[in-house]
Amino acid sequence: MSTRWKTLKRLYLPVLLATFAGATAMLLLYTPVEATMGPVQKIFYVHLPAAINAFLACLVCFLGGVGFLWQRKMKWDDLSAAAAKVAALMCTVVLVTGVIWGRAAWGQWWTWSPRLTFSLLLWLLYVVYLIVRPSIESRERRAMISAVYAVAAFLDVPLVYLSVRLMPDIHPVSVEMDPAMKITLAVWFVPMSLLTVGLIAVFLAAATRRRLKRQQRREEASWSLATPREQGLRPGEDQVLQVARSGRP
Description:
This protein has 249 residues and is mainly α. Helices cover 77% and strands 0% of the residues. It has one domain. It contains eight helices and no strands. The chain is globular.
């Protein structure tokens, strides 16, 4: 691991916490209260960055699926699975903040408008992805099915984005904000994006380590079961190997 990469890893968490703290301080102390909705409107500064980063995680999951279908390399499957976890998490944040916003803006927790329906579908798609993966025992088959699923699931992303523009919807297409609100919104994209990228990197590294350990165990098991000739042993060394396998002194 390079020195630059180690430095980035050490700095990541402090920078993430500092940006979240700064964004929260701006939200509470600097950003004005919206006249119609009041303080609850400030949840929008979390809601929109979470939605955009959910799309980003879905895109990475899609690219991982395309990469596996193209090259048949397990590293792409690891990337797709890591991004799917983050996509499900960000979609959860979007739905939770969205229903709180909806209760204050529309007087109801949920309505089956096109934007909300497609958003719920998006969350379900990636939750199902994560549930189904462990049930497929074959690594190659799991990776193939997951790749095809990731490509298909991404088709819901443009539906979520375009729904309010193509169909009648209670969800606003845009929100009027004064300059201070726009600055706060832009600042909130920084910690949310750092969180998204960091979580994908962490999940990817963990998946890669698990895969390499499983691969090493399989290779060790295959070598221990091989014949002396397959292992390249000279005459006489096979007897030593047999004693070692039996555990006798």
